[in-house]
Amino acid sequence: MTLPPGSLSKEQLLVKELLIQEDKDMSIYYVPYEYVNKRAKVMIIGITPGFTQMELAIRSAREDLLQVVPSDLIDQRAKKLASFAGSMRKNLIEMLNQIGLPGATGIDSSELLFEKRSDLLHTTSVIRYPVFRQGKNYTGHSPAILKSETLYRYAESILLPELQEVKDALVIPLGKSVSDVIQAFVNKGWLAGERCLFEMPHPSGANGHRKKQFEQSGSGMQQKVINWFSR
C-alpha cells in the first residue's frame, strides 16, 4: 500500500491491507512494534496501542522506508517515537518520578527513558497491535481481556514470551485490566510476582481516578522499586 506524506487519518490506516483480524465488533490492525529490548531494566505494559500511537508509528516507518533506514531499526525507531505518546507519556513520567525510578536506575528523570536512556526501557502492550471496538480505541473492558479468547491469545502468545525475554526488568503494568493479565501469568507460575508493580494507575487522561489511585499506592510502589533494584 502507498501512504501520502503528512499526518494519516483513520480512513487511510484502518484499511484491509493493515487488518490482522476481525472478531465480532473488534478489529486488530498491524503496527511496527516487534522490537524487543531484551536488556531493559524497566518494562512498561499498556493495554494496546491507540490510534494516536498507531498513526505515529506507521508515519515513522513510512519515512524510514523512504530514507532507506535498515529494516532492523525501523521498528525500534517507530516504537521509541510512538509508545505512550501524547499526554499519557507526561502523566506516566510524573508517576515514575514520584515512585523513585530515576534514582533507582541512575538517571535524573524518567523522561530520559523515552529519550537518551531508552536502552533501559522496554515498552509493550498486553495486545501488541492496535485494537478498535466499533471503530474506537479498545479500553481493556467490554470484553475484559481475560474473558476474550481472541485477545487473551495475543497476550499469551506474544506478551508472555516478551516478559520472559526481558528477564531482568521491573514489570510495570498500567491499570487494572493490564494488571489482571499479568497477575494471571503470576498465578500460573509463568512470572515472578516480585518483578511486578501492580498498583500503577493507567496514565490516560480519561482515567479520572488516576491521582487518587496513585496517592493510595505511591509509597508501596516506592518500596517495591527500592526492593527490586537493591536485590
Would you give an account of this structure?
- With 231 residues, the chain is an alpha/beta fold.
- The chain has eight helices and seven strands; from the N terminus they run H-E-E-E-H-H-H-H-E-E-E-H-E-H-H.
- The protein has helices at residues 10-13, 51-66, 71-82, 87-98, 101-105, 149-165, 176-187, 210-229, and strands at residues 19-23, 26-29, 42-46, 121-125, 131-133, 136-137, 170-173.
- Helix 2 packs antiparallel against helix 3 (71-82).
- The N and C termini lie far apart (49 Å).
List the helices and strands and how they pair.
Layout: H1 10-13, E1 19-23, E2 26-29, E3 42-46, H2 51-66, H3 71-82, H4 87-98, H5 101-105, E4 121-125, E5 131-133, E6 136-137, H6 149-165, E7 170-173, H7 176-187, H8 210-229
Parallel strand pairs: 3-4, 3-7
Antiparallel strand pairs: 1-2, 2-5, 5-6
Helix pairs in contact: 2-3
**Which residues sit in consecutive blocks of at least 5 with pLDDT less than 50?**
none
User: What is the arithmetic mean of pLDDT?
Assistant: 93
What is the helix/strand order?
A: HEEEHHHHEEEHEHH
Quaternary organisation of the protein chains: single chain
Helix content: 40-55%
User: Taking strands numbered 1, 2, ... along the chain, how are they ordered across the largest sheet?
Assistant: 1-2-5-6
Question: Which key phrases capture this entry?
Answer:
single chain; 231 residues; alpha/beta; Uracil-DNA Glycosylase, subunit E; 4-stranded antiparallel β-sheet; 3-stranded parallel β-sheet; globular
In short:
This protein has 231 residues and is of the alpha/beta class.
